[in-house]
């Protein structure tokens, strides 16, 4: 019985050793740190009052972990934080056009802040040694904060007045498609260039003198990210 137990333990040990060597050799698990730009599109980047969001290109930071359980198919998780400034110049111009009695206007504004946490399916195809093309389809949680804004206005024969638009927040479920190309050196360290698209219509609550009102905005942008990749 002892001999059988020793043989059984030896076999199990060899199997796990082989699996570990195989995973290490094939780099089945990838962890990456991402940074890049967030490019707003559509009404999120538009400059029409009461309809668009006046968002400008901003920065994006994040991390990603992928496990390829098959040579070309895997699952993974991703987290990203985006910061998109407000186009204050365009907003000021539109305010002057909309109100001919306005003599002076100064606007100070924070940025749109968007956080996403998602998971989904990944696919890859090897182009040549070290080079692979990746595709992904993720679903998850998105939280967006609108910018805090402070306005200083002055009208004819009226002194300067101040008013503010407070920041608001909305949460939503989002689907994220993406593609990328990756190069991995022999030691399992490499780089990846990724592109993603996110778009979601969101409702932001604001407290006014008439009660709680909602501003409906579509938050849409492309991510272009360069990543440091470590294959395990």
Give a description of the structure.
- By secondary structure, the protein is of the alpha+beta class.
- It is built from two helices and eleven strands, in the order αβββαββββββββ.
- The strands form two sheets. The protein has an eight-stranded antiparallel beta barrel. Strands 4-7-8 form a three-stranded antiparallel sheet, with helices on one face.
- β5 (112-128) and β6 (131-145) form a beta hairpin.
- Residues 14-25 have low confidence and may be disordered.
In sequence order, what are the helices and strands, one letter per element? Answer: HEEEHEEEEEEEE
User: What oligomeric state best describes the polypeptide chains here?
Assistant: single chain
Q: Can you tell me the overall shape?
A: elongated
Please outline the major beta sheet.
8 strands, antiparallel, barrel
Return the average pLDDT rounded to an integer.
87
Strand order, largest beta sheet: 1-2-3-5-6-9-10-11
Q: How many whole angstroms does the radius of gyration measure? A: 25 Å
The number of distinct β-strands equals: 11
Helical/strand content category: alpha+beta
The separation of the N and C termini measures 38 Å
Percentage of β-strand residues: over 45%
Percent of residues in helices:
10-25%
Note the total helix count.
Answer: 2
List unreliable stretches of 5+ residues.
Answer: 14-25
